[in-house]
UniProtKB/TrEMBL annotation:
Entry keyword annotation includes Repeat: yes
Record-given protein name: Pentacotripeptide-repeat region of PRORP domain-containing protein
InterPro entries tied to this protein: Mito_RNA_Proc_CCM1, PPR_rpt, TPR-like_helical_dom_sf
Organism: Musa balbisiana (Banana)
Superkingdom: Eukaryota
Record-linked Pfam families: PPR (PF01535), PPR_2 (PF13041)
PPR repeats: 81-115, 116-150, 151-181, 185-219
GO terms for cellular component: mitochondrion
GO BP terms: mitochondrion organization; RNA processing
Keywords noted in UniProt: Repeat
NCBIfam families: PPR
One term of GO molecular function: mRNA binding
Gene3D superfamilies membership: Tetratricopeptide repeat domain
Length: 328
Protein backbone atom coordinates (compact mmCIF):
# COMPACT_ATOMS: atom_id res chain seq x y z
CA UNK A 1 0.00 0.00 0.00
CA UNK A 2 1.34 3.51 -0.80
CA UNK A 3 2.89 5.51 2.03
CA UNK A 4 0.53 7.82 3.90
CA UNK A 5 3.16 10.51 4.54
CA UNK A 6 2.59 13.66 2.46
CA UNK A 7 5.45 15.00 0.31
CA UNK A 8 6.19 18.63 -0.51
CA UNK A 9 4.43 21.79 0.66
CA UNK A 10 0.70 22.06 1.03
CA UNK A 11 -2.09 21.08 3.44
CA UNK A 12 -1.84 17.81 5.38
CA UNK A 13 -3.50 14.64 4.17
CA UNK A 14 -6.45 15.02 6.57
CA UNK A 15 -7.39 18.31 4.91
CA UNK A 16 -7.02 16.75 1.47
CA UNK A 17 -9.39 13.97 2.57
CA UNK A 18 -11.83 16.55 3.95
CA UNK A 19 -11.81 18.36 0.60
CA UNK A 20 -12.62 15.14 -1.28
CA UNK A 21 -15.35 14.29 1.22
CA UNK A 22 -16.93 17.73 0.76
CA UNK A 23 -17.15 17.24 -3.01
CA UNK A 24 -18.50 13.69 -2.64
CA UNK A 25 -21.12 14.78 -0.11
CA UNK A 26 -22.41 17.28 -2.69
CA UNK A 27 -22.59 14.52 -5.32
CA UNK A 28 -19.73 16.09 -7.31
CA UNK A 29 -17.82 12.83 -7.66
CA UNK A 30 -16.25 13.60 -11.03
CA UNK A 31 -14.70 16.77 -9.61
CA UNK A 32 -13.50 14.87 -6.55
CA UNK A 33 -11.85 12.29 -8.79
CA UNK A 34 -10.20 15.06 -10.86
CA UNK A 35 -8.80 16.64 -7.69
CA UNK A 36 -7.54 13.25 -6.56
CA UNK A 37 -5.79 12.57 -9.86
CA UNK A 38 -4.18 15.99 -9.85
CA UNK A 39 -2.86 15.96 -6.29
CA UNK A 40 -2.49 12.29 -5.25
CA UNK A 41 1.25 12.35 -6.01
CA UNK A 42 1.70 15.15 -3.46
CA UNK A 43 -0.59 13.51 -0.91
CA UNK A 44 -0.18 9.74 -1.23
CA UNK A 45 -3.65 8.39 -0.36
CA UNK A 46 -4.46 6.32 2.67
CA UNK A 47 -7.47 4.04 3.16
CA UNK A 48 -9.65 6.96 4.25
CA UNK A 49 -8.90 8.85 1.02
CA UNK A 50 -9.87 5.97 -1.19
CA UNK A 51 -12.86 4.86 0.86
CA UNK A 52 -14.19 8.44 0.76
CA UNK A 53 -14.04 8.43 -3.04
CA UNK A 54 -15.46 4.93 -3.26
CA UNK A 55 -18.37 5.97 -1.03
CA UNK A 56 -18.97 8.96 -3.29
CA UNK A 57 -19.17 6.69 -6.34
CA UNK A 58 -21.55 4.38 -4.47
CA UNK A 59 -23.90 7.25 -3.63
CA UNK A 60 -23.92 8.30 -7.29
CA UNK A 61 -25.53 4.88 -8.00
CA UNK A 62 -23.36 4.39 -11.08
CA UNK A 63 -22.16 0.85 -10.47
CA UNK A 64 -20.04 0.75 -13.64
CA UNK A 65 -18.08 3.85 -12.61
CA UNK A 66 -17.93 2.46 -9.08
CA UNK A 67 -16.31 -0.80 -10.24
CA UNK A 68 -13.93 0.98 -12.64
CA UNK A 69 -12.72 3.27 -9.88
CA UNK A 70 -12.21 0.34 -7.50
CA UNK A 71 -10.15 -1.62 -10.05
CA UNK A 72 -8.14 1.53 -10.79
CA UNK A 73 -7.31 1.70 -7.11
CA UNK A 74 -6.21 -1.93 -7.11
CA UNK A 75 -3.81 -1.19 -9.96
CA UNK A 76 -2.39 1.66 -7.88
CA UNK A 77 -1.59 -0.83 -5.12
CA UNK A 78 -4.41 0.01 -2.74
CA UNK A 79 -5.19 -2.68 -0.15
CA UNK A 80 -8.91 -2.76 0.73
CA UNK A 81 -9.94 -2.88 4.37
CA UNK A 82 -13.18 -3.91 6.11
CA UNK A 83 -14.71 -0.48 5.41
CA UNK A 84 -13.95 -0.86 1.70
CA UNK A 85 -15.71 -4.20 1.59
CA UNK A 86 -18.75 -2.79 3.41
CA UNK A 87 -19.02 -0.02 0.85
CA UNK A 88 -18.80 -2.50 -2.03
CA UNK A 89 -21.29 -4.88 -0.43
CA UNK A 90 -23.78 -2.09 0.15
CA UNK A 91 -23.43 -0.88 -3.43
CA UNK A 92 -24.16 -4.35 -4.81
CA UNK A 93 -27.02 -5.01 -2.41
CA UNK A 94 -28.79 -1.78 -3.34
CA UNK A 95 -28.57 -2.80 -6.99
CA UNK A 96 -30.17 -6.19 -6.19
CA UNK A 97 -26.88 -8.06 -6.64
CA UNK A 98 -26.93 -9.76 -3.26
CA UNK A 99 -24.92 -12.82 -4.25
CA UNK A 100 -22.17 -10.63 -5.71
CA UNK A 101 -22.03 -8.90 -2.34
CA UNK A 102 -22.03 -12.24 -0.54
CA UNK A 103 -19.09 -13.43 -2.65
CA UNK A 104 -16.99 -10.63 -1.19
CA UNK A 105 -16.86 -12.56 2.10
CA UNK A 106 -14.67 -15.15 0.36
CA UNK A 107 -12.53 -12.39 -1.11
CA UNK A 108 -12.05 -10.96 2.38
CA UNK A 109 -10.92 -14.34 3.66
CA UNK A 110 -8.34 -14.62 0.86
CA UNK A 111 -6.92 -11.21 1.76
CA UNK A 112 -6.91 -12.00 5.50
CA UNK A 113 -9.35 -9.17 6.12
CA UNK A 114 -11.63 -10.08 9.00
CA UNK A 115 -15.34 -9.24 8.63
CA UNK A 116 -16.86 -7.00 11.28
CA UNK A 117 -20.35 -6.62 12.74
CA UNK A 118 -20.89 -3.88 10.14
CA UNK A 119 -19.89 -6.30 7.38
CA UNK A 120 -22.51 -8.84 8.42
CA UNK A 121 -25.14 -6.17 9.08
CA UNK A 122 -24.68 -4.86 5.53
CA UNK A 123 -25.14 -8.35 4.10
CA UNK A 124 -28.14 -9.09 6.33
CA UNK A 125 -29.76 -5.87 5.14
CA UNK A 126 -28.93 -6.86 1.56
CA UNK A 127 -30.59 -10.23 2.04
CA UNK A 128 -33.67 -8.34 3.24
CA UNK A 129 -33.67 -6.15 0.11
CA UNK A 130 -33.47 -9.36 -1.94
CA UNK A 131 -36.38 -10.74 0.13
CA UNK A 132 -34.32 -13.68 1.30
CA UNK A 133 -34.89 -13.69 5.09
CA UNK A 134 -33.60 -17.23 5.55
CA UNK A 135 -30.22 -16.21 4.18
CA UNK A 136 -30.33 -13.19 6.46
CA UNK A 137 -30.86 -15.54 9.41
CA UNK A 138 -27.93 -17.73 8.33
CA UNK A 139 -25.66 -14.71 8.09
CA UNK A 140 -26.76 -13.54 11.54
CA UNK A 141 -26.02 -16.97 13.01
CA UNK A 142 -22.65 -17.10 11.23
CA UNK A 143 -21.77 -13.73 12.74
CA UNK A 144 -22.51 -15.09 16.22
CA UNK A 145 -20.53 -18.27 15.47
CA UNK A 146 -17.52 -16.13 14.60
CA UNK A 147 -17.64 -14.60 18.07
CA UNK A 148 -19.09 -11.26 17.01
CA UNK A 149 -21.75 -9.84 19.33
CA UNK A 150 -24.74 -8.47 17.35
CA UNK A 151 -25.65 -4.85 17.95
CA UNK A 152 -28.98 -3.11 17.42
CA UNK A 153 -28.19 -2.53 13.76
CA UNK A 154 -27.72 -6.26 13.13
CA UNK A 155 -30.92 -7.21 14.97
CA UNK A 156 -32.92 -4.51 13.20
CA UNK A 157 -31.60 -5.58 9.81
CA UNK A 158 -32.59 -9.18 10.53
CA UNK A 159 -36.01 -8.12 11.79
CA UNK A 160 -36.51 -5.96 8.71
CA UNK A 161 -35.72 -8.86 6.37
CA UNK A 162 -38.70 -10.82 7.75
CA UNK A 163 -40.97 -7.77 7.78
CA UNK A 164 -40.27 -7.22 4.06
CA UNK A 165 -41.82 -10.58 3.20
CA UNK A 166 -44.72 -10.20 5.63
CA UNK A 167 -43.47 -12.77 8.13
CA UNK A 168 -44.44 -10.72 11.17
CA UNK A 169 -44.47 -13.69 13.52
CA UNK A 170 -40.77 -14.35 12.91
CA UNK A 171 -40.03 -10.63 13.16
CA UNK A 172 -41.70 -10.53 16.59
CA UNK A 173 -39.63 -13.51 17.72
CA UNK A 174 -36.48 -11.67 16.69
CA UNK A 175 -37.67 -8.63 18.63
CA UNK A 176 -38.09 -10.80 21.73
CA UNK A 177 -34.66 -12.32 21.13
CA UNK A 178 -33.25 -8.80 20.82
CA UNK A 179 -34.90 -7.64 24.05
CA UNK A 180 -33.11 -10.37 25.99
CA UNK A 181 -29.72 -9.30 24.65
CA UNK A 182 -30.02 -5.56 24.08
CA UNK A 183 -32.66 -2.84 24.41
CA UNK A 184 -34.92 -2.01 21.49
CA UNK A 185 -34.49 1.35 19.80
CA UNK A 186 -36.72 3.54 17.66
CA UNK A 187 -35.72 1.67 14.48
CA UNK A 188 -36.90 -1.60 16.06
CA UNK A 189 -40.37 -0.26 16.84
CA UNK A 190 -40.67 1.66 13.58
CA UNK A 191 -39.70 -1.38 11.50
CA UNK A 192 -42.31 -3.60 13.11
CA UNK A 193 -45.03 -0.96 13.20
CA UNK A 194 -44.52 -0.25 9.48
CA UNK A 195 -44.84 -3.97 8.76
CA UNK A 196 -48.03 -4.25 10.78
CA UNK A 197 -49.49 -1.23 9.02
CA UNK A 198 -48.56 -2.56 5.58
CA UNK A 199 -50.01 -6.01 6.22
CA UNK A 200 -53.02 -4.61 8.11
CA UNK A 201 -52.30 -6.28 11.42
CA UNK A 202 -54.03 -3.58 13.45
CA UNK A 203 -54.43 -5.74 16.53
CA UNK A 204 -50.68 -6.35 16.56
CA UNK A 205 -50.14 -2.63 15.99
CA UNK A 206 -52.19 -1.69 19.10
CA UNK A 207 -50.41 -4.33 21.18
CA UNK A 208 -46.94 -3.21 20.14
CA UNK A 209 -47.82 0.39 20.96
CA UNK A 210 -49.00 -0.61 24.45
CA UNK A 211 -45.87 -2.69 24.91
CA UNK A 212 -43.75 0.32 23.98
CA UNK A 213 -45.54 2.48 26.57
CA UNK A 214 -45.16 -0.21 29.23
CA UNK A 215 -41.40 -0.12 28.58
CA UNK A 216 -41.45 3.68 29.07
CA UNK A 217 -39.91 4.09 25.63
CA UNK A 218 -40.19 7.56 24.06
CA UNK A 219 -40.42 7.21 20.25
CA UNK A 220 -38.81 9.62 17.82
CA UNK A 221 -40.76 11.93 15.53
CA UNK A 222 -41.21 9.58 12.56
CA UNK A 223 -42.56 6.82 14.82
CA UNK A 224 -44.87 9.28 16.58
CA UNK A 225 -46.22 10.38 13.19
CA UNK A 226 -46.74 6.78 12.09
CA UNK A 227 -48.59 5.91 15.30
CA UNK A 228 -50.75 9.03 15.21
CA UNK A 229 -51.66 8.56 11.55
CA UNK A 230 -52.67 4.92 11.98
CA UNK A 231 -54.63 5.60 15.16
CA UNK A 232 -56.59 8.50 13.66
CA UNK A 233 -57.18 6.88 10.26
CA UNK A 234 -58.67 3.84 11.99
CA UNK A 235 -61.09 5.71 14.25
CA UNK A 236 -58.89 5.31 17.33
CA UNK A 237 -58.53 8.95 18.26
CA UNK A 238 -58.62 7.72 21.88
CA UNK A 239 -55.27 5.98 21.33
CA UNK A 240 -53.97 9.10 19.58
CA UNK A 241 -54.90 11.18 22.63
CA UNK A 242 -53.35 8.56 24.91
CA UNK A 243 -50.10 8.78 22.93
CA UNK A 244 -50.19 12.57 23.09
CA UNK A 245 -50.67 12.59 26.88
CA UNK A 246 -47.90 10.01 27.28
CA UNK A 247 -45.43 12.13 25.30
CA UNK A 248 -46.33 15.35 27.11
CA UNK A 249 -45.95 13.58 30.45
CA UNK A 250 -42.46 12.50 29.36
CA UNK A 251 -41.59 16.13 28.59
CA UNK A 252 -41.76 15.71 24.83
CA UNK A 253 -43.71 18.21 22.69
CA UNK A 254 -44.97 16.32 19.61
CA UNK A 255 -44.40 17.66 16.10
CA UNK A 256 -47.06 20.04 14.84
CA UNK A 257 -48.04 17.62 12.05
CA UNK A 258 -49.00 15.16 14.79
CA UNK A 259 -51.15 17.93 16.27
CA UNK A 260 -52.82 18.47 12.87
CA UNK A 261 -53.78 14.82 12.65
CA UNK A 262 -54.96 14.52 16.25
CA UNK A 263 -56.95 17.78 16.32
CA UNK A 264 -58.82 16.81 13.15
CA UNK A 265 -59.59 13.30 14.45
CA UNK A 266 -60.72 14.51 17.89
CA UNK A 267 -62.93 17.25 16.50
CA UNK A 268 -64.58 14.87 14.05
CA UNK A 269 -65.35 12.60 17.01
CA UNK A 270 -66.89 15.48 18.93
CA UNK A 271 -63.98 15.77 21.37
CA UNK A 272 -63.41 19.47 20.76
CA UNK A 273 -62.37 20.22 24.34
CA UNK A 274 -59.62 17.60 24.21
CA UNK A 275 -58.44 18.96 20.83
CA UNK A 276 -58.32 22.47 22.28
CA UNK A 277 -56.29 21.23 25.25
CA UNK A 278 -53.67 19.64 22.95
CA UNK A 279 -53.49 22.81 20.84
CA UNK A 280 -52.98 24.95 23.95
CA UNK A 281 -50.25 22.64 25.28
CA UNK A 282 -48.23 23.24 22.11
CA UNK A 283 -48.64 27.01 22.37
CA UNK A 284 -47.78 27.01 26.09
CA UNK A 285 -44.48 25.29 25.20
CA UNK A 286 -43.51 28.08 22.85
CA UNK A 287 -44.27 26.15 19.66
CA UNK A 288 -46.37 27.52 16.79
CA UNK A 289 -49.11 25.15 15.56
CA UNK A 290 -49.86 24.99 11.86
CA UNK A 291 -52.57 27.11 10.26
CA UNK A 292 -54.41 23.90 9.41
CA UNK A 293 -54.76 22.91 13.08
CA UNK A 294 -55.88 26.43 13.94
CA UNK A 295 -58.54 26.55 11.20
CA UNK A 296 -59.96 23.13 12.05
CA UNK A 297 -60.14 23.93 15.75
CA UNK A 298 -61.59 27.40 15.15
CA UNK A 299 -64.31 25.97 12.91
CA UNK A 300 -65.41 23.38 15.45
CA UNK A 301 -65.32 25.86 18.35
CA UNK A 302 -67.62 28.17 16.38
CA UNK A 303 -69.90 25.26 15.48
CA UNK A 304 -70.16 24.07 19.09
CA UNK A 305 -70.39 27.63 20.47
CA UNK A 306 -67.46 27.29 22.89
CA UNK A 307 -67.34 31.07 23.43
CA UNK A 308 -64.75 31.12 26.23
CA UNK A 309 -62.39 28.88 24.27
CA UNK A 310 -62.92 30.95 21.11
CA UNK A 311 -61.91 34.08 22.99
CA UNK A 312 -58.82 32.43 24.46
CA UNK A 313 -57.91 31.00 21.04
CA UNK A 314 -58.15 34.51 19.58
CA UNK A 315 -55.77 35.82 22.25
CA UNK A 316 -53.32 32.97 21.59
CA UNK A 317 -53.48 33.74 17.87
CA UNK A 318 -52.60 37.39 18.44
CA UNK A 319 -49.58 36.37 20.53
CA UNK A 320 -48.44 33.95 17.83
CA UNK A 321 -48.93 36.57 15.11
CA UNK A 322 -46.57 38.84 17.00
CA UNK A 323 -43.96 36.07 17.05
CA UNK A 324 -44.47 34.64 13.57
CA UNK A 325 -46.45 37.13 11.44
CA UNK A 326 -46.41 34.96 8.31
CA UNK A 327 -47.92 31.93 10.04
CA UNK A 328 -51.51 33.20 10.38
Amino acid sequence: MPSTAPRGPGPPLDEFNALLRAYCTQGRVSEARAIFRRFHSRFPPNSRTLNTLLLGFKESQNLVAFDLFYHDMMIRGFEPDAVTYCIRMDAYCKKMRFFDALGLLDEMAKKNCSPTIKTFTTLIHGAGIAKNPMHARRLFDEMVARGLVPDRGAYNALMGSFVRVGNLRSALKIMEEMEKAIQLDDVSYYTLLCGMKKYEDLEGFWKLYKRMVEKNFVPRTRTVMLLMKVFCENSRADLGLSLWDYLVEKGFCPHRHALDTLVTALCCKGNVVEAYKCFKQVVDRGRVPSERAFRVLEGFLVRTKKLDMMEELDQMTKRMQALVPSQF
